[in-house]
Amino acid sequence: MVALASQHDIKANRGLALHISQLNHGFALDGQHLPVLQQVSLDVAPGEFVALLGPSGCGKSTLLRLVAGLDSADAGTLQADGETITAPHPSRVAVFQDPTLYPWRRVWDNVALGLEAQGLLKAQRGKVDAALAKVGLGEFARAYPRQLSGGMAQRVALARALVNEPRLLLLDEPLGKLDSLTRITLQKELIDLWQRQGYTALLVTHDVEEALLLANRVIVFSERPATIKAELRIERPYPRHRDDPYLIDLRRQIMGLLGLAESW
User: What CATH number should be reported for the domain whose range is 2-91+169-263?
Assistant: First the structure.
């Protein structure tokens, strides 16, 4: 395993600690076992922003689903704040590439889904308005999803996650389908939200530059069955700039780790 740069202090925050040890997982496919994750060990500090990079289909999203509690690992340890993850929990919320908004519900009602499911909406309605304000969509509370742009719909998905006041935000390529200008804008907003809210963030992305701009640390996975090839700590303050020679050099290293050195 390759490790670059030294550990830096994580600011005081309300994020949870994630502990993954010797994690193995796979799927049954045509009567055979398909290994996906192999001996994956990773610790994420409270309030840290960690990005996961690796070849398509290597198991990054599978790892996110395991952390969310949507699936159970075949073997290994998976803990949030020292407690074994066995099921979904409001403290661990996922945002996916597709915002999956209900088209018949207005923006406000889509954001309220989590509180509604927990029976908390009547007492905590103000959290819905606060979440929409955080993502800059207060004026669109009464709009329907069909009236939103792609970037606005993804903001609604973020607000739906934030209304639960998560301590761990799981981001599975949430900006992957957006145009480049909208993506740049939302990258900045993701960092602003993370800095203000203090949660722990785990991001799956195929965009090396995005990982370097957003994360404290980048984890590079191998081909499936995925193992961790490298951990790179990003020693740069925010906001970061794409033309920073330090980030350009790290991008070159990551492209090499991914077998794409010729594409640089």
Answer: 3.40.50.300
